[in-house]
Design brief:
Order of helices and strands: EHEHEHEHEHEHEHHEEEEHEH
Number of helices: 10
Radius of gyration: 19 Å
Oligomer: single chain
Strand order of the largest sheet: 3-2-1-4-5-6-12
Largest sheet: 7 strands, parallel
Structural class: alpha/beta
Distance between the termini: 29 Å
Number of strands: 12
Helix content: 25-40%
Length: 267
């Protein structure tokens, strides 16, 4: 399967290039970077710490998409919307790991999925998606009598909060309780906040160092507390999930899918 990596000079982009090189059944068909990037023209393999592969970073995605079968995208919301339009035109699989998308952004991505297979998730790892399934079941079983808080920590360079993974876990908890997350989410506390609202789903975002991604879902009841935790130790695990998603999407009908669909965890 011929895959294009967008944002190829970034931390995730380089991990994706390495993962494609190590995975049977896929090959790197192109590498894209933003206009004006100092890395334009560099060899994608060398940039990722591998031997040269002959794929130079380009700021022109259109011809690359036209010759590929899928694109792996961990960029920014604005860039992802542009790539979604191009992927829909090319009718190729678009795997989206970009976080920080607004509701309006999601609407445009869903519109693009009418013409292309789109796999979008706040987290591409097997472990996190299994955690989301467990959170959904725990929230359903324990109900709003257990206060639910989501704590996440990422490296100092992360620009959005809460993380896409934290929101994915929040959506899972809300689904388990049969409510809409937007109606019960509490994203920050400061000053005299009053008592905790019953049924709220709280978020706390920590930033520092080089942390790849830690997420803990706390369900606190009277006299007992349950904590469900996932710690990511390498970006390669997200890259492996993205490649798995691309292979899964190959040949499927256009539509908007999630990693839960890819991993068979939807229920």
């Amino acid at each position: 399967m011929r895959l294009v990596v967008v944002g190829a000079a970034g931390r995730m982009g380089r991990a994706l290039v390495r993962t494609i090189a190590a995975t049977e059944g896929v090959t790197l068909a192109g590498a894209v970077e933003r206009e004006g990037s100092p890395h334009l023209g560099e060899d994608a393999g060398v940039l990722a710490g591998l031997p040269a592969n002959g794929i130079a970073l380009s700021d022109d995605p259109l011809p690359l998409f036209a010759a590929a079968e899928g694109v792996l995208d961990f960029t920014s919301p604005a860039s992802t919307l542009h790539f979604a339009e191009l992927a829909a035109q090319a009718r190729i699989v678009h795997v989206i790991g970009t976080t920080g998308c607004s509701a309006a952004d999601d609407d445009r991505i869903e519109a693009a999925s009418r013409h292309a297979v789109v796999v979008k998730s706040g987290n591409m790892s097997l472990g996190v998606n299994l955690l989301a399934a467990l959170v959904r079941k725990a929230a359903r079983a324990l109900g709003p009598e257990f206060d639910l808080e989501i704590v996440e920590m990422h490296h100092r360079h992360k620009v959005d909060a809460p993380s896409g993974t934290a929101l994915l876990l929040g959506e899972a908890a809300a689904a388990g309780r049969g409510v809409a997350l937007r109606d019960v989410a509490v994203r920050a506390r400061d000053g005299h906040t009053g008592a905790r609202p019953a049924g709220a789903i709280g978020f706390q975002a920590l930033r520092g160092g080089s942390v790849v991604g830690d997420h803990t879902v706390i369900l606190a009841g009277d006299g007992e507390r349950i904590e469900l935790t996932h710690r990511a130790e390498s970006r390669e695990l997200f890259a492996k999930g993205a490649v798995t998603a691309a292979l899964w999407g190959r040949g499927r009908k256009p539509g908007l899918y999630s990693m839960a669909d890819v991993l068979g965890l939807s229920d």
